[in-house]
Amino acid sequence: MTILAAATAHRHAAYFSPAPGSQAWLLGTQWLGRCPHSGQALTQPKPAGWEPEDFAQRTRDPRRYGWHATLKAPFTLASECNTDTLRSGFLGVAAGAGAPFTLHLELARLGNFLALVPRQPCAALQALADACVRQLHPFAAPLPPTEISRRSRGGLSARQQDMLALWGYPYVMQDFAFHLTLTGSLDGLSADQVTQLVQHATNWFAPLLSEGQQIDAVSWFAEDAPGADFRWVERFGFTP
After folding, report:
1. What does residue 141 show for φ and ψ, rounded to 5 degrees?
2. Radius of gyration over alpha carbons of the chain, in Å?
3. Which of 4, 20, 64, 84 could form an S-S bond across to 37 if both were Cys, CB 3.0 to 4.6 Å?
4. Using an 8 Å Cβ cutoff, are 141 and 83 in contact?
5. Alpha-carbon gap, residue 233 to 160, rounded angstroms
6. What is the pLDDT of residues 128-147, one digit of tens each?
7. Distance in angstroms (rounded) separating the CA atoms of residues 182 and 189
8. For 100-133, how does the pLDDT look when each residue is reduced to its tens digit (9 = 90+)?
9. Closest Cα partner for 234 from 84, 57, 58, 48?
10. What does the alpha-carbon distance between residue 2 and residue 233 come to, in Å, rounded to a whole number?
11. What pTM did the predictor assign?
12. In this structure, is the dihedral angle defined by the CA atoms of residues 168, 214, 85 and 2, taken in order, positive or negative?
């Protein structure tokens, strides 16, 4: 997606996503079965004994959003803003992010899905996520009351409720949790199937799990229309 095409997008988001063409990018996009840069469908590395459609179903939800970890959750552009001003916001975040750093990852089950997550807290990562939320929020349209009400039904804590009202998303600041999502819901799988899927992911992402992931940029993704696949718009490398 070009910046011009993004001008009419339904929503925008700030992600961490590896550089297109890098090993980390290829591992994640092939696992999910879609390249958000080219828009092409990719052949997925299904676990042994699985049908392709079964693995495609288990990865359907993260496939729509693209290979990423959320830094600023998807938002509608404010009426007084445009993609040029939003781009300036991304540039500002990248300029203030400091030097790139390496994040050491592990495979984890978060609730009922699998993801790659940091092995330990990282102050630089927290600062980056906080900056994305604070510096890009002025470009976001306020959530309508109906949407706030809908998102409030998930058993949010009082602090998360405050963050939802203030920033349009509850899992920010102290409740931010970096994760590169690998699957949708694991509900309905047997314990043996989950174990098999975990082992398959461990093998597939072994290079990331052993070498870590360099955090060196913030990526702009956009959703053309409600329910559409998110597409890569631009990647902003840190400029310390």
Report:
1. -70, 145
2. 18
3. 20
4. no
5. 29
6. 999 999 999 999 999 888 88
7. 15
8. 999 999 999 998 999 999 999 999 999 999 999 9
9. 84
10. 6
11. 0.93
12. negative
- The residue written with tokens 């229309």 in the block is 225
Report, in this order, helix, strand and coil percent for the chain, each rounded to 5: 40, 20, 35
Cα(55)–Cα(58) distance, integer angstroms: 5
Cβ neighbours of residue 226 under 8 Å, at least 6 residues apart? Answer: 10
Domains of the chain: 3-237 (3.90.1140.10)
DSSP summary character for residue 152: G
Round to whole Å and give the CA distance between 156 and 159: 8
Query: Among 181, 176, 189, 178, which residue's Cα sits nearest to residue 62?
Result: 181
Cα 235–Cα 6–Cα 21 angle in degrees, nearest 5: 35
